[in-house]
Amino acid sequence: MGSGPGGKRHPVPLDEGRARNMRANRRVDSKPEVQLRKRLHSLGFRFRKDYRMDLGDTRVRPDIVFTAKKVAVFVDGCFWHVCPVHGREPTRNEWYWTPKLRRNVERDQLADQALADAGWTVVRIWEHELLDAATAAVVEVLSPGVGLPARVSIPKSAST
Ligand SMILES: [Zn+2]
């Protein structure tokens, strides 16, 4: 659904509005994440979402987790996780944002390392990636070499 950020509107400084928006998108079901879950689900994959794991002293919460195959998927916001395409350093409020973003990146690296040490495969998807490409990346890890089933042409009841 293409619902915008409805509800209250009151004037906020531009940066604050942007930050609020991104904060709102961050934890719960950012859109690319929802789409990816839906697609994977429609392809027959079952997974947990926002599954919290304690790995040693590192706590991680991947967006999509395949526990049996030990595959953890993160859908990373371009701004928060500093994607190479859109994650340019913020020029305003740098005193605040830059250390925060750096911490995010470091936390991501720690999470990846902890997961890898525990035998997990980590898939990181940028939120700007197209759904097909994102789906293909995950499927490739789950079922190497199988490739994506023809797009959404899953027979409703093909029992042969
Ligand atoms: Zn990006």
Automatic annotation (TrEMBL):
Q: Which CDD domains match?
A: Vsr
What are this entry's molecular-function GO terms?
endonuclease activity
Q: Does the keyword Hydrolase apply?
A: yes
Q: One of this protein's Pfam families, by short name?
A: Vsr
- InterPro entries listed in its UniProt record: DNA_mismatch_endonuc_vsr, Restrct_endonuc-II-like
| Disordered: annotated segments | 1-30
Question: Could you tell me the keywords of this UniProt record?
Answer: DNA damage, DNA repair, Endonuclease, Hydrolase, Nuclease
Q: Which family does it belong to?
A: Belongs to the Vsr family.
What protein name is recorded for this chain? Very short patch repair endonuclease
User: What are the leading ranks of the lineage?
Assistant: Bacteria, Bacillati, Actinomycetota, Actinomycetes, Mycobacteriales
